[in-house]
Amino acid sequence: MRTLLLASSILLSAGSAMAQTPADPAVLTPERVFSSPALIGPVARGVSLSPDGQLVAFLRGREDDANVQDLWAAPTGEGEPYKLIDARALAPDAGELSEAEKARRERLRISARGVVDYAWDQQGRYILAPLEGDLFLATRADGSVRRLTETGADEIDAKVSPKGSYVSFVRDQNLYVQDLATGRETPITDDGRGLITWATAEFIAQEEMKRFTGYWWSPDERYIALTRVDESPVDVVPRFEITGAGTTVVEQRYPKAGRPNAAVELYVRDLTSGDRIKVDLGDNTDIYLARVDWSNDGRTLYVQRQSRDQKRLDLLSVDPATGRSRVIVSQRADAWVDLNDDFHVLADGRFIWSNEDSGWRHLYLYDRNGRVVRPITRGVWPVKGLNGVNEQTGEVFFTASMRDGKELPIEQQLFRASLNRTEAPVAITPAGGWWNASVNAPGTAYVGNYSDPKTPPQSALYRMDGTRVRWIEENRLDADHPFAPYVSRLREPEFGTLQSHGETLVWRMQTPPNFDPSKKYPVVMQVYGGPGTGAGVQKSWQPATSQLLTEAGYIVFRLDNRGEGDRSQAFETSNYRQLGVVETQDQTMAAQWLKRQPFVDPERIAIMGWSYGGFMSLMTLTEPEAGLAGAMAGAAPTDWALYDTHYTERYMSTPQDNPEGYARTDVLPRLGDMTGRLLILHGMADDNVILPNATRVIDKLQEQSLPFEMMLYPGQRHGVRGDPRQLQQWRTYLDFLDRTIGTRSHDAQD
Asked: Which of 36, 429, 435, 457 has the highest CB neighbour number within 10 Å of its CB?
């Protein structure tokens, strides 16, 4: 990693395999980006293989409206894909979602309507799909679709029980079970109201822990483990949800750093006896309920309990009949222990789990009592995630960014390792791009999703040896593809590395059409930079908005700084107790490097980002050594004491324990050091990074008589949703850049 990574040619040849060059290439416009059909082409989302391996299900946006999804299916053998659930036919008039469902979809980053989720039973007889607040069940045997609910309330987090006997869901803060044979509905809880909610993941669990459910069926359908959440300890943060139609005051329960969390308890309901017992989670109630899993025989409930300071993660073995628990594994760290979804119980009671004890995330085999049997993977590279296990063949499947035993952050592949011995992994998918894979339960097949800078996302069904069985969405970039008119002006990116404090940082650069290296160009630095996320610099297909920037004459540049995720433990924890400090150092170094390039205009470099990227845009604009001409900061956290507990305390501890760190990373004292123009953007109903993060900056800038620009979005939460508003957002970006570093900027006119 000390040398340039796979540096691509800056010029894309006319004979590229991307597509046949049109005779009259079109210039991509914002209006075309935010209209249908989607430029990315027909992309299958939420792809899954039926438990019997005979059918592939997936979500596909409609041709007439890419933001509305239908549920499709395709046989794994011969036969064409067909529409299983037509969203508009079953629910032609999309109504207003409940506030709980709006919040849940925001946490899941779901902006589409129609069918947005679905679930199989373990036999593969049914597919359950929520649609506009009600539930529909598709039966494979006859292809019929029946409506299970029709109420004024939303049925959320719906599941088919493991054996297909029941459908369960949460309605009005209580858990219900419907018998599929009789249609009878049974409330499992009945006291959920006000600040008490059953079987639902609380705000922190959804937003920061990636736990989106609050209940779990045992494999034999005897038990349901479920949470009880009491939000009464959580501070009330009045939030003015400002829309175009008016203002509503929402008294949101928001757990700010250093303040109380919701009280979360875990219970087990015995459906045979009707008894409900409380799980012993320990004497200390100020903990996080991170993960819940069942053993294959349903006799053991496994619970991951994380300490409030996140330096310890315990695995509890729980007797579901009594609620008694014991700790069988404890993971500890000096900074924090990352949560993951790598826990997998084998049929014989042993289990697989990952940890970072070696300094890199790797998979280990444990016996049923929590003793390490052997490492499954090892090396100076991290496992990204456990994808599946074939117990019959003794194969373990995982995703990693690695080649020849060395870390390779810009690519990702599916690998195979051995359950029975520690040996070098074998790549299943080819190198050269970015793979995501979903392996079926027996570990005999996978759905592979692939893209690279020249290939839009493709999905197919594969055998575990990598042989393709059938395309799900080939999404071939041919003359009929929506992107075909614009492909000849798409420049192939260049990848490279920079060194910072002993760590290797990767970057990506895309140049404008007709690029002339003898000329000087303005640069837009795109940044996220935050911890807990994977690589931003990928050899994958990029959003069409990147080409909007290159079409406007900008070089687009991105650097993954220290502190970002899916790297070594040392790389990830370099920002501990000082969010934004090392990240700004790295982005500043990148800006200085860009200024030394002969084809870059050093006086015309701007930065843009959203959420943590908005924070980084503000931090870098206020760093004199970066010397940026402008920044576009969207939904930026500006004072970490205003952000939530689980995220902030993981990296910063509490404001009481680390006042110096909080003060050092506050944006306000830095505003007088702005080196260029600033555009602030924020959703006026943001329930994640609350609006006071923006208003305190606005107030300070006005107090100091510093000019800035602002764009607020009524009714929008932590993202700007809908094509019309996104079109306006990108018109605003392009206008700001044009006046700041583009053709209308002072320097350009000079």
From this structure: 435
DSSP 87: H
Taking alpha carbons only, the member of 504, 495, 474 closest to residue 432 is: 495
Q: Decide: helix, strand or coil at residue 305.
A: strand
pTM check: above 0.85? yes
Domain ranges of the chain: 493-749
> What is the pLDDT, as a whole number, of residue 9?
32
Whole-Å CA distances, 403 to 331, 569, 639: 28, 19, 40
Residues pairing with 362 in the sheet: 355
Are 272 and 287 within 8 A, CB to CB? no
The pLDDT, as a whole number, for residue 282 is 97
Token pair for 278: 């409380």
Among residues 412, 384, 623, the alpha carbon closest in space to that of 527 is found at: 623
On the question of a cis peptide bond just before residue 51, with omega within 30 degrees of 0, the verdict is no
Residues 189, 240 contacting (CB under 8 angstroms): no
Task: Provide the 3-class DSSP secondary structure of residue 427.
Answer: strand
The residues assigned a catalytic role are 611, 686, 718
Tell me the H-state helices in 539-580.
Answer: 544-551, 569-572
Q: Is the pLDDT of residue 168 over 50?
A: yes
292 to 98, 120, 288, 310, 621: CA distances (angstroms): 27, 19, 12, 17, 43
The class (CATH top level) of 493-749 is: alpha beta
Q: Tell me: the pLDDT tens digits for 241-252?
A: 777 777 888 888
* pLDDT class of 95 with cuts at 50, 70, 90: low
**Of the ranges 42-46, 88-92, 437-441, 503-507, which is most confident?**
503-507
pLDDT (tens digit per residue) in 208-221:
999 999 999 999 99
Q: Categorize the per-residue pLDDT at 141 as very low, low, confident or very high, splitting at 50, 70 and 90.
A: confident
Query: Of 100 and 720, which is predicted with more confidence?
Result: 720
Read off the DSSP letter of residue 258: T
Reported as a single tens digit per residue, the pLDDT across 424-440 is 999 999 999 999 999 99
Beta strands 406-407 and 372-375: pairing type? unpaired
Mean pLDDT of 476-498: 96
What element of type H or E holds 71?
strand 68-75
Q: 47-50: long-range contacts (C-beta < 8 A, 24 or more apart)? A: 47/438, 47/447, 47/449, 47/459, 47/472, 48/120, 48/438, 48/447, 49/76, 49/438, 49/440, 49/445, 49/446, 49/447, 49/461, 50/120, 50/124, 50/140
Q: Which two tokens stand for residue 732?
A: 């605003």
C-alpha distance from residue 472 to each of 43, 185, 349, 370, 548 (Å): 9, 37, 35, 40, 29
Side chain identity at 68, as an amino acid letter?
Answer: V
Rounded Cα distance, 621 and 584, in Å: 10
